[in-house]
Amino acid sequence: MLYGRSTEQVRLEGLIAAALEGHSGVLVVRGEAGIGKTALLDWAATTAAGRGLRVVRVTGIEQEADLAFGGLTQLLWPLQDRLDALPDPQAAALKAVLGAESAGGRDRFLTGLAVLTLLADLAEDVPVLCLVDDAQWLDQASAEPLLFAARRLAAEGVAMVFATREDGLAAPGLDELRPSRLDSRDSARLLAEHQVAPVRRERIISESAGNPLALIEFAAEQRDQSAGPLSSRVADRVMASFRAQIGRLPERTRLMLLMAAAEGRGDLALLLRAAHPMGIGLDDLEEAERAGLIQVTESAVAFRHPLIATAAYQGTASSRRVAVHRALVEAAEDPDCRAHHLPAATVEPDAAVASELAAAAGRAGARTAYTAAARLYEQAARLAVTGRDQIGWLARAAAAALSGGRPDQAAELAERAEELAGHVAGGAALPGPPSGGEHHDAVAELISVRAAAMFELGEEEKAVHLLLDRADRVAPRQGAAMLRTGATYAWFTGDEAAVSAAARKLADLGESDRMAEGLAHLMRADYTRGLPLLADFLARTPDTERALFTGMIIGDDAATMALAAAEVARCREQGLIGALPQVLQVLAQTQLWAGLHRDAEATVAEAAGIACDTGLQQRIAWLNGVPARIAAIEGDESRCRRLVGETPGAYQATGDAVLSLLELSMGDHEPALDRLEAAWSGPGRNTAVLLSSAPDQIEAAVRLAQPHRAEEPLRRLRAWARASAQPWVQAVALRCQALTGDDETAFQAALTLHERGGRPFEHARTRLLYGEWLRRARRPGDAVAPLHAALETFTRLDATPWAARARSELHATGESPGAAHPDSPEAPLTPRELHVVRLAAAGRSSREIAAQLFLSPRTVEYHLYKAYPKLGVTSRRELSRLNLT
């Protein structure tokens, strides 16, 4: 019976009831050791089973915290017969977890999608309660997919409950429940149940501070007259109590408990194989079993509470722990199990052990368990015999940490390896592989990893100079790769000298790179040479990532959108979830330029959701540029300024461009102009985003009747347009020429170029400015057509301040512009509903849509159900007749 847990039981009962109605929910039960988290999960399991739910359970094990997929294997082992029903990439990912096949470079987050689909499929039969106990000890490779699945549950009929220590599993965004300590009344009732005399209860209640485990253990201790004085800290006291109980057992029993604690998984067969050479066996567990410390079944040994295992292990001399781990190594039949115990069994450098650990790290990395791989490589480095091997394994540890989303750890490991390289070889590169590895230059790898980690951590300038300064210390091919990356990083930081240096060094190596050369020319405002080089690079390169980056810079929106859409489709098909946020960001940017604001918002929302669900929190802030610009166009000042305030420093030029556009639309011409002039004097000068804002700078100067302040941005814009093959750039340059020179011919030429496509918002602005010019020239009749066309585009884009300006001009011509706001549905589709509906309209099944959007089929159906009334339809068949653009 549970005492003092009515509030917690109500919350858990609510989750179970919701699952029975087809809804999903997640709860994190967080609290100190012994507060009763496991008891709550046990109660939930019993309650759920009694109401017809299927209960699946995972328990973190302290000794397995570094064992790849140790926790997830518990979930999957009894469900292996369900895996073949999953989409092929997902089934393969889960089979790789179980060791049935290699993950072969798959995205580490695909496993989370597979877990989500598996739980949803289980819930198709009956609702599911998934319990994850002692989550603070889950290995990272298990925690990530379980949390991913938890965050994307919606309408499957799946309830998930995680139980973790106070400082355990980090689960931002998930609802939490913190069990309270028991009050005096409930503490007394618990002690009475354990037959503690009333005369003893008051002191025990006081010392336990309402912790249920402490109450029970202190009560048992007080029944033992040999127990010593009470200690001051509850946690210390509970541990001391367990150690005292273990200390009273026979020596052979204590040794068997130590072995069970060291083994961790409760594998009785392995324990007995390891115990035999040490002269102990199953009979030696009887005393511990009678004392209630463990439970023994036909195949497993389980400690009554994890703290008992901790007490059995930590309360033993280190020499005994080493001996036990050595016995477990010899008895283990699985190579990964051997690798788990080898570091604790080895106290001196050992080349064979280091190689075996590195091999295990390679297997972990192949299964996308990068955190485990990093740990194993680091342990291999610790036990390596030669400095060369140490450097190699540390380099690989750093690379694995970076792949696992741990840039801080990656930077620290890479720095350690570099320092070691300096000691071993006086700072020179150490060519060749670590023993047993494929040919590669470890120093080049660790420099690249360290630079990537620095860039992720916001130390962009340090990353640039690290790559450029060390490129000549490695093999030419690897040095060239470092220089290409350095040139890209330097572009983001606005470091003109670094971009030029990277391009020059590449040429010196015989590895001339059109992208690096083009960027160097752009940094010097030499658009005539820079833009053609970049355009040629975009047309020829097979490197999609660099092509996307180049397309964004030169403003080739159509090519960039096509590339981004294809790359998004590839990522969806192959389940490359971790790569999606960055590609979706590029797609959203091109959708924005194309005037597809709803699409862009939906794309950003999906990217932000995936970034959040996969723990890529830093990516969320980088996504703000697109919705911030949409807010500026729409005149939503508070949202625009909030989003710009959350944008990383590396995107300062983007923030300045967005805010200046907002201020221009509001008639605040002076601050808009000042802001852009300041930006042009900063490190972001000559970037594409500021060149795209040159028209705003020019218009603000003209509005302020300060044409001299328009001269320099107009010169840059015209030079860009002359070198560019993009009609929209040429059109905008002509518009600005017309605006400053009172030139109708330039306006007309600009509109002709705009008709070739690209950036409808800029097209509408040209029409608006031409209409205004015509009205001031006393030709109101000629002004009506361009003003109406401008108003139509601004209205479609919800560009409220710009539409108001066009409407005001039409009034001045004597025209009636019509209603200020078009009719729109009272409840517009959410970004996710829009995605789902469009795919459904294209004939995709719910299962196909779920695989593309990383949802469950039930959630897809839920979004369709919510969208139908908003669209005025009742079935999928009717969707194909709707205009969903």
TrEMBL record:
<protein>
    <submittedName>
        <fullName>Helix-turn-helix transcriptional regulator</fullName>
    </submittedName>
</protein>
<feature type="region of interest" description="Disordered">
    <location>
        <begin position="808"/>
        <end position="829"/>
    </location>
</feature>
<dbReference type="GO" id="GO:0006355">
    <property type="term" value="P:regulation of DNA-templated transcription"/>
</dbReference>
<dbReference type="Pfam" id="PF00196">
    <property type="entry name" value="GerE"/>
</dbReference>
<dbReference type="GO" id="GO:0005524">
    <property type="term" value="F:ATP binding"/>
</dbReference>
<dbReference type="InterPro" id="IPR027417">
    <property type="entry name" value="P-loop_NTPase"/>
</dbReference>
<dbReference type="InterPro" id="IPR016032">
    <property type="entry name" value="Sig_transdc_resp-reg_C-effctor"/>
</dbReference>
<dbReference type="GO" id="GO:0005737">
    <property type="term" value="C:cytoplasm"/>
</dbReference>
<dbReference type="InterPro" id="IPR036388">
    <property type="entry name" value="WH-like_DNA-bd_sf"/>
</dbReference>
<keyword id="KW-0067">ATP-binding</keyword>
<dbReference type="GO" id="GO:0003677">
    <property type="term" value="F:DNA binding"/>
</dbReference>
<keyword id="KW-0547">Nucleotide-binding</keyword>
<dbReference type="GO" id="GO:0004016">
    <property type="term" value="F:adenylate cyclase activity"/>
</dbReference>
<dbReference type="InterPro" id="IPR041664">
    <property type="entry name" value="AAA_16"/>
</dbReference>
<feature type="domain" description="HTH luxR-type">
    <location>
        <begin position="822"/>
        <end position="885"/>
    </location>
</feature>
<dbReference type="InterPro" id="IPR000792">
    <property type="entry name" value="Tscrpt_reg_LuxR_C"/>
</dbReference>
<dbReference type="Pfam" id="PF13191">
    <property type="entry name" value="AAA_16"/>
</dbReference>
